[in-house]
Amino acid sequence: MKLHADRLDGQNAIARHGPGGVLVNQTEHTRPVIVPWQGPVLPWDVASFDTLAAAHFEPLLALKPQLVLFGSGARLRFPPPRLLAGLMAARIGFEAMDTAAACRTYNVLLAEGREVVAALLFDPAPGRDAPR
C-alpha cells in the first residue's frame, strides 16, 4: 500500500529532520532556520545557542504567530527569559524543546490549523549532517 502524506497547499510542513537540518517543501536547510506555517522559510542568523540575543527573536514577532516552537539543537536548552521579552509583550506563546521534538510538534500543530512558527538550531554530529 502506498501512503501519501497529507499536504495543505501553502503550508510549510517539515518532511524530514535530523541532527544537521530539515527538509521543508523539498528544500534542505542545514543552518538555523525559521519555519512559519505559511510563507517563505527564512534563514535565522544565529551562530549557536550560546550567541542568542533578544534581536534574534525579533523576526519571529513580525510573523505574528500564535505560538513559537524553539528547537534548541540535540538537547533541550531554555533561552534566558530576558531574550523573550518581545514575544511575551506581544502575547505570543513560546515552547522550548530539542529540535527533533520541535519538528514533530510543529507538524502536529500545523495539521490542526495553528499559526505556528518553528525556530530551529542544529547540532550536527561528525559525519551526520543531512536530514533523515
UniProtKB/TrEMBL annotation:
CDD domains: Xcc1710_like. InterPro entries: MTH938-like_sf, NDUFAF3/AAMDC. This is Membrane protein.
